[in-house]
Amino acid sequence: MSKEWVTDVYSTIKAIGVQQVAYVPDAGHTQLIKLCDADPGIHSVSLTTEEEGVAMLGGAWLGGQKAMMLIQSSGVGNCINMLALIQECRMPFLTIVTMRGEWGEFNPWQCPMGQSTQAALESAGVFVLRADDEKEIPETVRAAALLAFNSNRAVAVLIGQKVLGIKDFNK
């Protein structure tokens, strides 16, 4: 499966002026994380838990910088309480979420949060855009970033598991 969308997303976030990237290590984001880590113009931080990223993005905004977070759907639940900070302070929040618990999932523990990720985010006041075709991803991320940074809103891009491929750790 082609991963050209990753370099397009990287170019998009650079063009929009993202200077900080918070992430929880994830196979679906590996290439994008490596690009951000290697870029001296981006301060990238590996988080121990996703809610730290919500606070980091808020701090970046208070410091005059644009930031985004890269997480997996299983970590969305960890962010829900912290999203009140984003909503009440009307801070921009941009996250790209790689989905689990969908297309050919082997781990049943991923299914409950995978099924409820979009509803949980929307219930917390987050605009959710979804890309289930790799050709849609760069433009979806661009639209999400513009919405987040121009309107000081919380926006999540969900990348469907079908795009990332079936994980099979039994090989």
Could you please describe the fold and organization of this structure?
This protein is an alpha/beta fold and 171 residues long. The protein has a single domain, classed as Thiamin diphosphate (ThDP)-binding fold, Pyr/PP domains (Rossmann fold, 3-Layer(aba) Sandwich). The chain is globular, with a radius of gyration of 15 Å. A six-stranded parallel beta sheet has the order 2-1-3-4-6-5, with helices on both faces. The chain starts with a helix and ends in a 7-residue tail after the last helix. It contains eight helices and six strands. The model has no long low-confidence stretch (mean pLDDT 94). Helix 1 (4-16) packs across helix 2 and helix 1 packs parallel to helix 7 (137-151). It has helices spanning 4-16, 30-38, 50-62, 76-79, 83-89, 111-123, 137-151, 161-164; strands at residues 18-23, 43-46, 66-72, 93-98, 127-131, 154-159.
